[in-house]
From TrEMBL:
It comes from Cherax quadricarinatus. It comes from the Eukaryota. InterPro entries: P-loop_NTPase, Small_GTP-bd, Small_GTPase, Small_GTPase_Rab. Belongs to the small GTPase superfamily. Rab family. The keyword Oxidoreductase does not apply. SMART domains: RAB, RAS, RHO. Keywords: GTP-binding, Lipoprotein, Nucleotide-binding, Prenylation. The keyword Nucleotide-binding applies. One of its GO terms (molecular function) is GTPase activity. This is Ras-related protein Rab-8A. Gene3D superfamilies: P-loop containing nucleotide triphosphate hydrolases. The lineage of its organism: Eukaryota, Metazoa, Ecdysozoa, Arthropoda, Crustacea.
Length: 144
């Protein structure tokens, strides 16, 4: 049983690992093969927040350009948004400005945003975005 339901969107460019992140969190499974999301996928997980069970509805969005107009409709009613970028792909980091603008235009001003640098298991030579740069961006937009 749970006391509240929260809608959380997972957004970012194509192939940054949004679906893997969602599966890892919800199913505690890791898939090392690429799974392309068509439109949107939906998962749920009950978690404890300060000893109170809550239900998270996790909306895994497609990052492909052709689905981006659909994504804006999903912002409505979201209490949380996880912005994902791939630490080995500088373009995915640079495109965060697009996603942040989208959030500003389509989501509630009260929405909680979290920045996630994905694929951190790579060695430092493979990283295109270092940890400090990600943290600096997160701080500038009041994101944990």
């Amino acid at each position: 049983d749970f006391t509240a339901t929260y809608k959380v969107l997972v957004i970012g460019d194509v192939n940054v690992g949004k679906t893997c992140l969602v599966h890892r969190f919800c199913d505690e499974r890791y898939y090392d093969t690429y799974i392309s999301t068509v439109g949107i996928d939906f998962k749920q997980k009950i978690v404890n927040l300060d000893g109170v069970p809550i239900k998270l509805q996790i909306w895994d969005t497609a990052g492909e350009e052709r689905f981006r107009t659909l994504t804006t409709a999903y912002y409505r009613g979201a209490q949380g948004i996880v912005l994902v970028y791939d630490v080995t792909n500088l373009d995915s980091f640079n495109h965060l400005s697009y996603w942040l603008r989208n959030i500003e235009e389509n989501a509630s001003p009260e929405v909680v945003k979290v920045l996630a640098g994905n694929k951190c298991e790579v060695n430092n030579q493979q990283r295109a975005v270092d940890k400090e740069r990600g943290q600096k961006l997160a701080e500038s937009f009041d994101m944990p």
